[in-house]
Amino acid sequence: xxxxxxxxxxxxxxxxxxxxxxxxxxxxxxxxxxxxxxxxxxxxxxxxxxxxxxxxxxxxxxxxxxxxxxxxxxxxxxxxxxxxxxxxxxxxxxxxxxxxxxxxxxxxxxxxxxxxxxxxxxxxxxx
Length: 127
What we know:
- The protein is mostly helical.
- The chain has one domain (2-113).
- The chain is built from five helices and no strands.
- The protein has helices spanning 2-36, 42-49, 52-60, 68-87, 94-107.
């Protein structure tokens, strides 16, 4: 009986590992244009599409003055953006715009001042 339980647990772990590979590849393909457009950074893309250790490394390597909570929220928002892009077939929709604005807000950019010529523009510091 113990052998059956152990074999079942091992089978579940192997199935989850095998299923995760194609999902990560799809998410990378969906979110790669967002890295090119400076909505996400390469490290954030790795955190969203990688394993748990990639997410932890991204949270640990956050900029000074940034909380872990904000960094984890940013990773969840990037995952939501990938889902919204997949539902919209890669086109811009209100949900995609909302997700991009949320990520811009978490990065400290002003989403209303987004200009296509300079998508990586940062908002001026608040005084």
